[in-house]
């Protein structure tokens, strides 16, 4: 196992806030690095040599995402303190942020591109909001829908966005309340966004619960949570790309959910000695990796058998 030393990230105060693989090329990966409040950059690294090939100043990076299916653009969606409540689109070819999309209610805490539509981006905020964006548009016009868990008959139009299921314009009845901001997670920040295989369903992970959204209707189709003893533990999640399975961690425990189910079908207690801070899936090997707050990393097969 290789390690990137602190001195190669930048100043001694530099910390990594987000990381992602370059789409279709495991020889490169990106790091969102911050050196001090509101200051930071996106770094492009060579996997084999563990050498930083490029640094692009963006300000402190709170979240990043790249489209895994794009053949037309190399845009990195970025949440940054410099942008306030906006989402920046960083063009890797030009090395600059080419546009900003405005309208996020709070600081951007999570981003995810659709696996089927290179222009459809989901964003979550630290105020509990979850929104869909069309990256071909700029400003407030780019926001095509805001999800709201409190209403089952809501109102908006997911405009002419290609979702992998056609570009038909869809709308439904809205009951407006000008005094209330729509919210997907009323109990805190959205820590992670994941698209289920096929791209139709979006999972948003909050502090204590996980919601599944149908992006065609805009409705919440399921609400999932952990057993009561873990209600005060922050959740993390990863998705199996060849099955409709969601792996969720809370505290020291890991559970497997089937899509649309409210409780785990399998549950594994005390998998780590410290609280699990990160859960990720490998799309090639279908393995799951969990990392805890003390630096231990465990690899699991798709049925959560430890390795």
Describe the structure.
The chain has about 300 residues and is mainly beta. About 0% of the residues lie in helices and about 45% in strands. It has one helix and 25 strands. The strands form seven sheets. Strands 1-2-3-4 form a four-stranded antiparallel sheet. Strand 23 and strand 24 (about 290) form a beta hairpin. The longest helix is centred in the N-terminal third of the chain and has 4 residues, at about 5-10. The relative contact order is 0.08. The model is unreliable at about 150-180 (pLDDT under 50).
Helix content: under 10%
What gap, in angstroms, lies between the N and C termini? Answer: 15 Å
Q: Please give the count of helices.
A: 1
Uncertain spans, ≥5 residues at pLDDT below 50? 152-180
Order of helices and strands: HEEEEEEEEEEEEEEEEEEEEEEEEE
Evaluate the radius of gyration: 19 Å
Biggest sheet strand order reads: 1-2-3-4
Shape: globular
- Strand proportion, as a percent range, falls in 35-45%
The total of beta strands comes to 25
């Amino acid at each position: 196992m290789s390690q990137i030393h602190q001195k190669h990230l930048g100043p001694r105060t530099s910390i990594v806030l987000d990381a992602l693989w370059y789409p279709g090329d495991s020889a490169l990966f990106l790091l969102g690095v911050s050196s001090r409040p509101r200051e930071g950059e996106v770094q492009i690294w060579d996997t084999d040599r563990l050498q930083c090939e490029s640094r692009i100043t963006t300000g402190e990076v709170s979240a990043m995402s790249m489209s895994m299916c794009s053949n037309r653009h190399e845009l990195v969606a970025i949440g940054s303190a410099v942008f306030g409540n906006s989402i920046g689109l960083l063009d890797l070819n030009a090395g600059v942020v080419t546009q900003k999309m405005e309208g996020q209610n709070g600081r951007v805490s999570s981003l995810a591109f659709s696996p089927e539509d290179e222009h459809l981006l989901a964003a979550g905020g630290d105020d509990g909001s979850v929104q869909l964006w069309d990256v071909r548009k700029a400003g407030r016009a780019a926001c095509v829908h805001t999800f709201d868990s409190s209403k089952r008959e809501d109102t908006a139009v997911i405009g002419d966005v290609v979702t992998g299921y056609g570009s038909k314009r869809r709308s439904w009845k809205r009951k407006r309340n000008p005094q209330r901001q729509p919210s997907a997670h009323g109990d805190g920040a959205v820590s992670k966004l994941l698209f289920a295989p096929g791209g139709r369903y979006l999972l948003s992970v909050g502090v204590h619960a996980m919601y599944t959204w149908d992006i065609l209707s805009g409705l919440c189709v399921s609400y999932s949570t952990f057993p009561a003893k873990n209600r005060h533990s922050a959740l993390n999640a990863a998705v199996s790309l060849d099955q409709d399975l969601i792996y969720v961690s809370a505290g020291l425990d890991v559970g497997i959910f089937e899509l649309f189910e409210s409780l785990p079908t399998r549950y594994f207690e005390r998998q780590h000695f410290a609280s699990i801070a990160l859960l990720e899936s490998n799309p090639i090997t279908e393995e799951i990796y969990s990392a805890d707050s003390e630096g231990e990393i465990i690899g699991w097969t798709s049925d959560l058998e430890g390795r």
